[in-house]
Give the backbone structure.
Amino acid sequence: MTAISAHCAIRSDRIAALSASSSSFSGQILPKHSRFSGVSVPAFPVLRRSISCQSSSAASSVSSVNGKANSELKDFLHINDFDKDTILKILDQAAEVKALLKSGERTYLPFKGKTMSMIFTKPSMRTRVSFETGFSLLGGHAIYLGPNDIQMGKREETRDIARVLCRYNDIIMARVFAHQDILDLAKYSTVPVVNGLTDYNHPCQIMADALTIIEHIGHLEGTKVVYVGDGNNIVHSWLLLAAVVPFHFVCACPKGFEPDKETVEKVRQAGISKIEITNDPKEAVQGADVVYSDVWASMGQKEEAEHRRQVFKGFQVDEALMKLAGPKAYFMHCLPAERGTEVTDGVVEAPYSIVFPQAENRMHAQNAIMLHVLGF
């Protein structure tokens, strides 16, 4: 049932070659690939204003603040900051490094001697463990900075934190509430900044999801992905991916809980993918390749949890909904899952559930993102 995409397939001779030469890999790079023909997608400056963020004009203003615009260093803030070719190359590299690590290879250490600060204003198991483990396996050292270590924007201004940490570290990852915080970190940092999650989007998660879909279906392009639940930061990142890679994306959510209208409109205007926003999950899932769910009340919304349970009745992903999706549909969830609320225990544990391979791929996708932004 599992297929591997041509652009993500890992040939045995390729792995053998990587392993055979691994003794000389430390501090070096994986070969660049030229197997893709990219399609440039226009940037959407308006997206940077959504969900408590202001227009930062990051691409134009950053050179006057930190010089990154004139170097090879990059940030990973939104998926649609990159074109199709670049996104697919990152996914390709994720698959290669994953295969290398799975083979037991431990001498490929491109991050040897490098350090990363991990800023958390929101706690997380997967984000911390996947970033810290991945960076360590590739030779680097990650430093955890929790909510009480920095108190970003309260104890110290975000721009000052960025200016200090970039003098200690080679890369900064941040998991924050306000999207403006990640924009400010990137604006004032001279080293790459990776968006580990904001209230607006979660690009690392969707890169891991894309890798998982390619592994199980064989391709991302042309698939039908149906998200059932709240039109939250996960939905925004799926939409931004749909502005770059062509596929059919449907968000089925209750009235009043739709994703950001400006984001939806700009992605539709890009004309890359088919985008649907609906209030009917039963109709939405028919013919889906992937049915995707997330918690109904995200971090910071827990006081709304009981109200949301009432509003979201009928949007639970259960066995009956998966049957409507059809026999080829997989189930995905970014976790943590509230079993019995947005999804039943039976769906999470079903053979068509790829929730845990999806969780594992957070590390592999993020490794590739970090390799890319650091210039490897």
